[in-house]
Specification:
With 165 residues, this protein is an alpha/beta fold. The chain has two domains: 2-55; 70-154, Type II secretion system, protein E, N-terminal domain (GMP Synthetase, Chain A, domain 3). It has eight helices and four strands, in the order H-H-H-H-E-H-H-E-E-H-E-H. A four-stranded mixed sheet has the order 1-4-3-2.
């Protein structure tokens, strides 16, 4: 909830949404959280797709123009099998963020919630090294995470360890 609150506050501060609309979105978001629909738990999604008071493209443009962050389309990236197995999907869904590549010490991280400082702080701590941030859409994050979930489900289970005699 904290990440969504700060995301919403930054959308208001950037004049992308009105305070009244954010209050409505927060009420709706609380209903979503209480109902257990964690994958829909995003204030940006409520504002853009339910209330239709902001276009996600306008938010992305603001991030590019004012934050100096690039855009990424995750359909062009394939995680390693190791990353697919170890990625914390719960954290990815909760923050609408996914690390998608690594080059030497640099982590490449895509997010639909760049305007939420707790999201960035969480991933900076998780990655433990410099991050190159990229913005993307909620749909792009969701599609990427659902693909990873499907691939995990299709992976053969690890063999059970043999008993020691």
């Amino acid at each position: 909830m904290r990440t969504n609150r700060l995301m919403g506050a930054n959308l208001v501060e950037a004049n992308l949404v009105k305070l009244d609309d954010l209050e409505k979105a927060n009420e709706r978001l609380l209903e979503i959280v209480v109902s257990g629909q964690s994958r829909q738990s995003t204030v940006l999604g409520v504002l853009a797709f339910e209330l239709k008071v902001v276009r996600e493209e306008d938010v992305l443009q603001h991030i590019v123009d004012h934050e100096g962050v690039g855009l990424v389309d995750l359909r062009n990236y394939e995680l390693t099998d190791d990353a697919k197995k170890t990625l914390d999907l719960g954290a990815c869904w909760a923050t609408w963020t996914v690390p998608f590549d690594r080059e030497e010490d640099f982590h490449f991280v895509a997010t639909a919630h760049y305007l939420s400082p707790p999201v960035r702080a969480f991933w900076e701590k998780q990655c433990g090294g410099p991050i190159l941030w990229f913005a993307t859409t909620l749909e792009n994050i969701a599609d990427h995470l659902e693909k990873i979930e499907a691939e995990r489900a299709a992976m053969p289970a690890a063999p059970a360890p043999k008993p020691v005699s």
